[in-house]
Amino acid sequence: MKFAVLQFPGSNCDQDAFHALRDVLKQPVRYAWHKDTRIDSDETIVVPGGFSYGDYLRCGAIARFSPVMQSVVAAAERGQTVIGICNGFQILCEAGLLPGALVRNTGLHFLCETVTLEVANSRTRFTKNTRDGDKLRIPIAHGEGNYRVDAETLKKMEDFGQIVFRYEGGAPNGSLADIAGICNRQGNVLGMMPHPERACEPMLGSADGLKIFQSLLN
């Protein structure tokens, strides 16, 4: 499987994702600069974490207008796989590829810790190597990971299995319904606040993030 890892001014998890894909999973991967419009039809797209454009306006709000995102939206509409992590999740929401929005954490503090996720839907292309209820230890590092959506949309998301991950024991950031990750209705676009690319090797304290990437490979 081929991967393209996007790079925006302010991305700081692009190299982590690149390392996990190339050195751990042994997959072909390239960087896609934000001004580039090339997205190959056989590539899985990774929108990494960081502080795109410094988050000076609103997280992901400027990155959403980068030239590469036009190609990402087109690829997603063709059914290609897209995964947005942390700031990448925020960008996908701003681009309209995922419902809802991410706002400041409850308590207004930046959170950097390892959390336990519960798999809420193991029937997606991102969770095939898991079962419903499985627990994954994966780190978070964000200031605006508080997921918000209106009640009607939340009900539809629950009905269509769009909630993929929840925080076990309650969301540390105040996220609605303890949501940690969601997919679109078609099931080819995933956004999650925790960083699976930082949990791909035992020496990092957890290799649970591999289950997400290996699900894509399988």
What does this protein look like?
A hairpin with a 5-residue loop joins strand 10 (179-183) and strand 11. The protein has helices spanning 14-24, 67-77, 87-94, 151-159, 210-217, and strands spanning 2-7, 29-33, 43-47, 82-85, 101-103, 111-119, 135-142, 146-148, 163-167, 179-183, 189-192. The relative contact order is 0.17. It has a single domain (2-217), classed as Rossmann fold (3-Layer(aba) Sandwich), CATH 3.40.50.880. The chain has a 9-stranded mixed β-sheet, with helices on both faces. Strands 5-8 form a two-stranded antiparallel ribbon. The chain is built from 5 helices and 11 strands; from the N terminus they run E-H-E-E-H-E-H-E-E-E-E-H-E-E-E-H. It is of the alpha/beta class and 218 residues long.
Search tags:
single chain, 218 residues, alpha/beta, Rossmann fold, 9-stranded mixed beta sheet, two-stranded antiparallel sheet, 5 helices, 11 strands, globular
Largest sheet: 9 strands, mixed
Q: In whole angstroms, how far apart are the ends? A: 10 Å
- What share of the residues does DSSP label as strand, in percent? 25-35%
As for the CATH topology, it is Rossmann fold
Number of helices in the DSSP assignment: 5
Give the domain tally.
1
Instruction: Write down the secondary-structure element order.
Output: EHEEHEHEEEEHEEEH
Topology record:
Elements: E1 2-7, H1 14-24, E2 29-33, E3 43-47, H2 67-77, E4 82-85, H3 87-94, E5 101-103, E6 111-119, E7 135-142, E8 146-148, H4 151-159, E9 163-167, E10 179-183, E11 189-192, H5 210-217
Parallel strand pairs: 1-2, 1-3, 3-4, 4-11
Antiparallel strand pairs: 5-8, 6-7, 6-9, 9-10, 10-11
